[in-house]
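Problem: given the chain below (133 residues), write out its structure.
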Amino acid sequence: MSPLQDFHQGRRGRTHRALILAYSQIAVHAPQTQLLPRVERDITRRVLQHYVSSCQVLGITILNKDLDLKLTLIRSVTEISRAIQDADGSQSFQFTYKEELLGYMLDFIKEEPMDSLASPVRLTAMLAIKHLR
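Solution.
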């Protein structure tokens, strides 16, 4: 890969990470009465679109080895989940993206080496799972 292509890939990745975090902050700061009707269609769906786009090269999905991207998605899942829990009427809310997000978190945990606890991915993914309830 040429240095110019490498530069654009890095810029593209940073842009996707920034947008993922921006959408989760929208969930955190949204009025509680307006969050639940929009959290799936307008927030979570777009977070996942940016994550999946970050994991594609020429339209082909590749294994995500980017630690920053993983941690960004984990943080976003945690923030969105906590915002849902704090929203009015959350007890009866069925979060349709729950299984998909749980799958990503479990994949991140499985990808971590079993002999090392140095990476923050395992712990933060477990905390995100806790908030996904």
